[in-house]
Amino acid sequence: MDQEWLRNSLYSIGFQDEALLKTLLKEGTLKEVTAGTYIADPGTPVDFVPLVLSGTLCVARVDAVNDKELFLYFLRAGSTCASTISCCMSSTVAHVEVVAEEDSVLFILPLQRAAQWFDDFPEWRRFVLQSYQQRFEEALNALDSVAFRQLDERLMAYLNERRSALSQNSVLPLSHGDIATALHSSREVISRLLKKLEIDGRVALGRNRIELLD
After folding, report:
1. Which of these, 16, 131, 186, 202, is most buried using a 10 Å CB contact count?
2. What is d(CA 122, CA 116) in angstroms, rounded to the nearest whole number?
3. Distances (CA, A) of 121 to 23, 88, 125
4. How far apart are CA 147 and CA 142, in angstroms?
C-alpha cells in the first residue's frame, strides 16, 4: 500500500483539504488487522482514533459480569467509531468492544493530534460530528430493536446486517451461540428460530455457518 493509494482512500472518504490531507498522511499509521482482532476493550485506555479504510469492524456493548453482549453497529470503509473519538477527546477509557469482523485495513491517528485537529480543520470537525450523528442513530436503532421488535424480526435484521457488513456475502460464519450473545437471547431459542427459518426456506444451516437464501 503506497502513499498514493492512501491519499486516494482518504480523499474518497471526504478529506479534500490539502493541508488536512498532508497532516493526516504525516501523522497517521497504516495497520492491517485480521478477523477477530480486538481494536478496543471496555475499560482499557484509548490513545488513538481508528479510521477504517477497508474491511469491517463490529462495535458492541459488553456486560463482563453476566457474560452478555449487545450489538450496536458495524464500522465500514470510510467510517470511524464515535465512542472511540469521545474517549480520545476526554482522555478516558473505552466503553465499547470493537472487533475486526473481517480482515481490515485501519488508519491509526494519534490521540492528542486528533483532538487538536477538531479546532484546526473544519473538514475534520465536520467528519467527527457527522460520525457522532450516524453512530448515535445506529445505536438508537439497536435500542429500538431490543425494545420494540420481536426476536424473530431482530434475528433476520441482524443476519441481513451481517451480510451487508461482509460485502453481501450470503454465507455467514456464525454459531448459534454467537447470535444468542449478540441478541441477548439463549442458544436454544435462537436455534429454534433458525430451524423455523430453514423450514421456511430462508436460510440453510451448517456447522458454524448460516447461508441466507433470500
Report:
1. 131
2. 11
3. 10, 17, 6
4. 9
